[in-house]
Amino acid sequence: MPGSAAPSFALAFALLLSGCAGLIGGKQPVSVGAASRPLPLPITPGPGSFNVQKGRPGYVIGVPHGSTDIATDLMGLELARRTGFGAVVVTGEGSLDSPGRRYNVNRPTEGVAGDPPRSEAETEAARRVYEGYGRLVAEVAQGPLRFYVEIHGNAHQDTAGRIEIATVGVTKEDAWQLKTLLELVRDAHLSGQPNAPKLEILVEPVDTLRYTASASKAGGLLGRSDRSLHIELPKVARTTYRDAYTAVLADFLTQGADLLASARAK
Question: Tell me, what CATH number does 238's domain have?
């Protein structure tokens, strides 16, 4: 259970939300951090911070773990810039009462990154954080949430050579098309970069994933959108070859959003 630091993150959301309508009328970042006072004790090791940008109505990129999923905050903001989607990027969500323990943000629980969903604990503080994050996503969506993309990272050995995409509202035919699209985009962007790893692409429900995002689908934000993608990136795609894979994902998301919209219109 979090100690005195827990309420600060929830209050930071409340402070942000109180001024949200006037601050994100355009594509302007909004941050809540150490310089925004008054705030109670921050979350260890630093205060919660939220970068919020409006973009294409209904299309939002979410980054719940910008600090602990290394460099996902940087990728999320750059993806929003390149695609024109809105963005809600969260940093400072951990640690809590033990090393590695964090608010999950996209669902009303706290836990250790990489542990199974059954080990997560639902707490009042975690629920406040989740509800605040959900309100920000709704604000950025500017109406119905039609396409929601979450960017995550992991360091598991089994997934070090692949990108996994869990989905909501995506048929098997849609998934085949998304998988093929991402493979083509990957190959095109990496054709002039012989040292860049050609990461394998797995898309649900065509492929079996390690990271299925089941907890967020069942009781979190992924289930709120007509179509959702939960993208898990290995470390190499977020560090050494971040620029290359940011370009790959931006191209994929721009084309993938139109592909899914066309499929829905049929």
Answer: 3.40.630.100
Q: Is residue 233 part of a domain?
A: yes
Local structure of 168: helix, strand or coil: strand
Instruction: For tokens 């209050």, name the residue.
Output: 11
CB atoms within 10 A of CB 14: 13
Cis-peptide, bond into residue 38, ω within 30° of zero: yes
Residue 230's domain comprises: 6-265
Residue 1 within a domain: no
Beta 109-112 vs 147-154: how paired, if at all? unpaired
pTM of the model: 0.82
Number of independent structural domains in the chain = 1
7 touches 23 (CB < 8 A): no
Q: Identify whether 95 is preceded by a cis peptide bond (ω within 30 of 0).
A: yes
Would you say 104 and 80 are in contact if contact means Cβ atoms under 8 Å apart? no
Distance (Å, whole) CA 215 – CA 256 = 24
Query: Between the CA of residue 163 and those of 36, 71, 166, 172, 230, what are the distances in Å?
Result: 37, 15, 10, 18, 10
Rg (CA), the chain: 18
Q: At what angle do helices 6-23 and 124-141 cross, to 10 degrees?
A: 10
The 10s digit of each residue's pLDDT in 16-62 is 444 343 333 344 443 333 232 222 223 333 346 788 999 999 999 99
